[in-house]
Structure formats: C-alpha cells, structure tokens
C-alpha cells in the first residue's frame, strides 16, 4: 500500500459506469463501481436522485424529475481517497410534443455517446440549405470498431395508431470492404 502512495498511483483510482445515462422520470439507474487499488469505502452523491447519496458499492438510484444531473463518487482505502465527478451524467427526459420535426436549424442538443475516434457533431450545412445537420466524420480520425450514438428526444407514440419516422442520410465508404453501418433503434420502454 505504501508503494501506491509513494508513486502516486492511488490518485485517479475512482471510476464508475451505469446501465443507463438517459431515462424517463421514475426509472432506476444501476451504478457500478469500477475503482482500483483496494477500495473499501464508497461515498456517492446523486443530486436529483432518490436516494441523493449512498455508501453502497453498486447503488440503484431512481430519478423522478426531468433535467440533467451530476454524479460524484469518492472512494477510499488505507492510503487515502480519490474522487471522480461526471457533470450532467444522467439525463431525465420527458416526451417531446407531437408532431415532432427536427431541422437542426438552431443547433444540436441531442445526447452524444461514444468512445475513441470522432463523434457526432453539428454542421450548418444541410441537403437543401434550410437548417443544419449532424455528422460523424468516419474518414479522418476514425477508430476500428468504434460505436457512436446520437440520442434524440423521447417521443411518446402510444396515442397514435400509425407513426412514420423519416430521415435523410448521406454516406461515403472510406475504403472498400469497410463495415460501417447506421442503425436506428426504437424502444417501447424509454430506452
């Protein structure tokens, strides 16, 4: 243990993930501690969550109020403590009004998730010159097996007998044989 303190390895040992980052009001988010270096204490802070704090290693937290919420984890062992805070880590969304249309004329506020390489970003260029678009530059700086997600607003289609979703896509393959794909996912359970 003293070697961890002397070499400074202990700092930065706090880490966590969760099973969801975007939820509907009333949903439970399960957090998982991924800290290193023999952690024996956990002090979680969940503004906007119920409960608002926990000392469990892997707590489950309910979010009832729409908004974006920080999550902070402080872990400790015999050598000291390490803290990680993720701003706006949990987003609790309510359904957008129907009918819904998005031209990206006023920017881009959808949630973006991805690890490594480029990620989704806003562009003022659109196919018809009216509005903007979102793009993922998979030519420059892309990473093999990278998965990037862009998550739009929640749409409650339960009041509709029929619903149609349309969008326009432009795509160019970087190199013959690349296996790029665009997948549209729809769920009936808020995520």
How is this structure best described in words?
3% of the residues lie in helices and 33% in strands. It has one helix and 13 strands. The strands form four sheets. It has a five-stranded mixed beta sheet with strand order 2-9-8-4-6, with no helix packed on it. A four-stranded antiparallel beta sheet has the order 1-3-7-5, with no helix packed on it. Strand 8 and strand 9 form a beta hairpin.
Portion in helices: under 10%
Number of helices: 1
Kindly name the structural category.
Answer: mainly beta
Give the helices and strands as they follow along the chain. Answer: HEEEEEEEEEEEEE
For the largest beta-sheet, the strand count, sense and barrel status come to:
5 strands, mixed
Portion in strands: 25-35%
- The low-pLDDT segments are none
Q: Average pLDDT value?
A: 83
Question: Which descriptor suits the 3D outline?
Answer: globular
Strand adjacency order, main sheet: 2-9-8-4-6
Q: How far apart are the termini?
A: 42 Å
Radius of gyration: 21 Å
Q: What is the number of strand segments?
A: 13
Short description, anyone?
This protein has 191 residues and is mainly beta. It contains 1 helix and 13 strands; from the N terminus they run αβββββββββββββ.
List keywords for this structure.
single chain; 191 residues; five-stranded mixed β-sheet; four-stranded antiparallel β-sheet; 13 strands
């Amino acid at each position: 243990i003293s070697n961890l303190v002397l070499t400074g390895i202990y700092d930065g040992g706090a880490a966590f993930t969760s099973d969801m980052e975007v939820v509907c009001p009333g949903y439970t988010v399960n957090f998982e501690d991924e800290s290193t270096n023999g952690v024996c204490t956990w002090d979680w802070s969940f503004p906007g969550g119920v409960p608002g704090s926990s000392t469990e290693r892997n707590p489950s937290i309910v979010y009832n109020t729409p908004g974006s919420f920080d999550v902070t984890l402080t872990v400790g062992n015999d050598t000291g403590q390490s803290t990680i805070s993720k701003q706006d880590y949990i987003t609790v969304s309510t359904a957008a009004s129907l009918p819904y249309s998005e031209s990206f004329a006023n920017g881009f506020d959808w949630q973006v998730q991805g690890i490594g390489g480029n990620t989704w970003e806003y562009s003022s260029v659109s196919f018809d010159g009216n509005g903007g678009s979102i793009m993922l530059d998979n030519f420059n700086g892309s990473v093999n097996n990278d998965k990037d997600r862009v998550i739009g607003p929640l749409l409650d289609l339960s009041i509709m007998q029929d619903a149609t979703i349309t969008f326009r896509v432009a795509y160019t393959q970087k190199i013959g044989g690349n296996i790029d794909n665009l997948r549209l996912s729809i769920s009936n359970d808020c995520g």
